[in-house]
Design goal:
The protein has 478 residues and is an alpha/beta fold. 38% of the residues lie in helices and 16% in strands. It has two domains: 2-85; 98-366, Alpha-Beta Barrel (TIM Barrel). Helix 4 (138-150) links the parallel strand 7 (98-102) and strand 8 (157-163).
Length: 478
């Protein structure tokens, strides 16, 4: 029988210990010298005859046992074996877990690279002049809560995320939705978690008091120190926003810590010419007090001056590697580290996540426009070509099912031979729509970046696993 090694990626931990990441199952296995030699020998397109290969070994019994173990674990399989059937979709209609309420389509900043109000927007109009109502009414916010409760099935916990524009321009709707959600959650015997993204310009004492009392998970969009922040994130008159937001952020962090609230994170948009990642991370955590920092390469169409070209992604990967060294040092001490991108990746690797779709958009998550229209996610609200229904009338299940079926990673032939597919599943729908005009296409423009980042994650996982494996217990309870 001709056998061959399945799609995989090998990596090393400390002291030369070797592991294999099996792309077909998302499993991570340690390899001793014999298993390593088997994986290497059978890693040929045409495969090898198992009987002939075994005859070359002096200790045939040990080799045969190791080979059969690898076969049973799915690392070695017959050449041409049909892939095991897997469900294209979970049972539908799938219950919602998260609803993102875009409570306003207005913003008080004019960020150069903004995906919604910049050059790559999907909605019509200039600047932040969206096509829908400027602000979500309290009635629409309450309708959205009722919609979530009706469509969350037996889930004991749901999440509500508030988004914009600048979310806090419609603080009254946030208050109305939160208070109503708590009332309805009691009636439905559910718990509700709240989160919010803001540019921090409107974090008044009243707002901070409300958000921390209700244990909001808060993400602040900020690009770094004053120089970095003011390069792209300015008010309409061109004035930088850093001096306005810095004291407000410090007040938020202090109040939240005093109340033992949830983590407060920074979201950094990385553009061409940005400061080194590690410098930005240290400033945001040490000077402003953020608990964690996530870095997002800018979403930009071709030709934008701030876009990251191939060299930009290569530099970014190197800088992520430098910050990963800090993460490993912290993990070996048993300490948490706030590099959110790497932490999220390590969690998925440890939990064996194997995605059929890149995120929950259209599945467990939907976005709601200011007028109550449902979109695949917050990035698609008011984009009529991706409408999924309305909070008053429900989900268009035919559209939803058709889209998710087409967007399944098994339908993306470009992803077939990529070892990172269990973690990427083709990438962001919105970016695919911006780049290729088809939200179900694979994000081919950043495949090398994703593979490089997954390689970094695997190497980091292997290093920590061989020096302080107890560190990963934090990923086993959620």
């Amino acid at each position: 029988m001709q056998l061959r090694t399945v799609l995989h990626r090998r990596f090393r931990g400390e002291r030369g210990l070797e592991f294999v990441y099996v792309a077909t199952s998302a499993a991570i296995l340690g390899l001793d010298s014999l298993a390593h030699s088997i994986v290497t020998a059978f890693d040929v397109p045409e495969g090898l005859d198992a009987t002939a290969w075994l005859e070359t070994h002096s200790d045939r019994q040990a080799a045969e046992t190791a080979l059969h173990d690898l076969i049973d674990l799915g690392v070695i399989r017959p050449v041409g074996e049909p892939a095991a059937p897997r469900a294209q979709l979970p049972p539908m209609p799938f219950p919602l877990a998260t609803l993102v309420l875009n409570v306003t389509n207005k913003c008080n900043l004019t960020c150069t690279y903004c995906y919604e109000y910049g050059a790559d927007r999907l909605t019509n109009g200039k600047g932040s002049e969206g096509t829908g109502k400027a602000r979500m009414t309290d009635d629409t916010a309450r309708q959205s809560i009722d919609f979530l409760m009706r469509n969350s099935g037996d889930r004991p916990q749901v999440s509500i995320t508030f988004f914009g524009g600048e979310t806090l321009l419609n603080f009254p709707a946030i208050v109305a939705a939160t208070e109503y959600a708590e009332e309805r959650a009691r009636a439905h015997r559910k718990r509700v978690h709240y989160s919010l993204t803001t540019n921090a310009t409107l974090l008044t004492d009243e707002v901070v008091d409300f958000l921390t009392k209700h244990r909001f998970g808060i993400t602040v969009s900020i690009d770094g120190d004053q120089k970095e922040q003011d390069r792209h994130r300015t008010f309409r008159g061109g004035t930088g926003s850093f001096e306005t937001i810095a004291p407000r952020i410090k007040h938020l962090v202090a109040t939240n810590k005093a109340r033992k609230g949830r983590s407060i994170g920074a979201r950094v948009t990385l553009t061409a010419g940005a400061a080194p990642v590690a410098d930005t991370y240290r400033f945001l955590t040490q000077e402003l007090g953020f608990d964690e920092v996530g870095f997002a390469p800018v979403t930009a169409g071709l030709g934008r001056s701030y876009a990251l070209g191939e060299a930009g992604y290569e530099r970014l990967l190197r800088e992520f590697g430098e910050l990963a060294e800090d993460y490993v040092a912290a993990a070996n001490r048993g300490d948490a580290h706030g590099f959110a991108n790497l932490g999220d990746l390590l969690r998925e690797l440890h939990q064996g996540v194997n995605k059929a779709h890149p995120c929950g958009a259209g599945l467990g998550l939907l976005g709601v426009s200011t007028e109550g229209e449902l979109g695949l996610c917050h990035r698609f609200v008011e984009s009529k070509s991706h409408a999924v229904g309305h909070v008053s009338t429900g989900i268009d299940e035919a559209f939803r099912t058709t889209f998710l079926t087409k967007a399944h990673v098994d339908q993306k032939t470009d992803c077939t031979q990529c070892f990172a597919r269990p973690l990427c599943a083709g990438g962001c729908y919105h970016e695919a729509h911006v780049r290729y005009g088809d939200a179900t296409r694979a994000n081919l423009h950043y495949c090398e970046w994703i593979r490089g980042f997954v390689d970094l994650g695997l190497a980091t996982y292997g290093r920590i696993l061989t020096t302080n494996p107890k560190y990963f217990a934090r990923f086993e309870s959620s």
